[in-house]
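Hello,

I think I submitted the glutamine job twice by accident. Can you confirm which output corresponds to this input? Input:
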Amino acid sequence: MSKSPTKYIFVTGGVTSSLGKGIISASLGKLLTERGYSVTIQKLDPYINVDPGTMNPYEHGECFVTDDGAETDLDLGHYERFLNHGTSQANNVTTGRIYQTVIQKERKGDYLGKTVQIIPHITDEIKRRIQILGSTKEFDFVITEIGGTVGDIEALPYIEAVRQLKWELEKDALFIHLTLVPFLAAAGELKTKPTQHSVKTLLESGIQPDILVCRTEHSINSEIKRKIAQFCNVERDAVIESLDVSTIYEVPLLMQKEGLDKIVIKKLGLTHKTEAKLKKWKKFLNGLQNPKQEITIGLVGKYIELKDAYKSISEAIIHAGAKNSCKVNIEWLHAEKINTNNVKQKLSKLKGIIVAPGFGDRGMEGKITAIKYIRENSIPFFGICLGMQSAVIEYARNVLGLRNANSTEMDSKTSTPVIDLMNEQKEVTKKGGTMRLGTYDCYLKNNSNAYNAYKNNNIKERHRHRFEFNNKYKNDLEKAGLIATGINKNKNLVEIIEIAQHPWFVGVQFHPEFKSTVDNPHPLFCGFIDACINNK
Ligand code: GLN
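Support: Only one job matched these inputs. Its output is below.
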């Protein structure tokens, strides 16, 4: 039997941003995956940066890194955590990337003789980028989430491109539109008008949504659903309620109850495969919602005003906690506000502490002060990227007595560069996409905390950095007790450091948080949370 053609689902949003398009897309993807389909999810971002790698976390939240080294939108993290399947460069497309490609082609002469325009050249490039994922024949479904809100000037070429694609693909594509059904307290009523207006805006661009997902604080009764269906021209069972919930991990179950996957399958003319069972998912949710114990850990960072800056870390903590039926509260600690006078008061009650990734010297001394206290008081420690580098600096200064130890990122003239620019970075001048990015091998030494967590000598993890452990100081640091337990053998790079004499002190140069999923909580986060639970 020949495989039916890839189905394309376009997800747009109206009324306001932050309705949860990413979570709805990921939840639908999960339900279809569990029915036995192969699914991938793509995000189209209407900004002019080529990727979010050059943006401050305050602007954009975390920059998520894929196996192939793409710096992407944090929604891709949700896609991976829900689907338990990797994404790639092709899963995140920005306006910057689209224009860059079109302009490069123009310079090459590919359009020789023609005027290059938004329609058809930009829209064609958008269509091509959407179909790249389908053309591999690997996926039954490509779900494409269009960033922003309908009516935004930036989003217009995307809306036009998917309108054309729907016309070309006919029965193999459909539109899901997310809207808000607000509750007006003064009137005591849910209001459908914003949804009606939002659909009207889509219709002006020639798009009739097939399914409406209505975000709401209060349950939408059948009369309101009927009204929305009638005025927005969609079938009654294509009006899906998306009620606020306490955790994003409830959303797939909610969408299943509302029949989102069922209506998608029906509308795309597919034969029904068995309903999603979500066995592993439900087990995870049970651990999350019925915890047998509760602990509080600290997260030291400098972007903590915006929790989205540490999205994958906080989700990885949730995964590892649920696995242990343990509720893990996070105390967010501003690195700049930690000093020798208050460090004890801020950290002493915490069961364990993560020192976060980051760039630049702001907050660096606070991180080092925190790590000294953590090390001396045997508190479980997990340092990620800059967090690991900070631990090396702290050890060099306070145990080896190298008072000037630093990273050349913080002090380019330091006499003691225990963390230094990587060789391959020395000639790099451009900022976009030039870090050491994506997956690299790492070899783990037996009898280390890392090995005990992974139960494997050979692992692969994702990176995003320019600086590294300076091997010149390796011997001295190891003799003093800071052991390199993970090594990239190809380049002889130290990827993990540990203190053997400490209950759990692990610093990693890579970003384990990017690989934690609901179905596979990350071994290092599980190891760390275990150590925190055991820290009496
Ligand atoms: N700023 C450090 C470097 O570039 C660490 C990066 C990070 O934490 N992602 O090496």
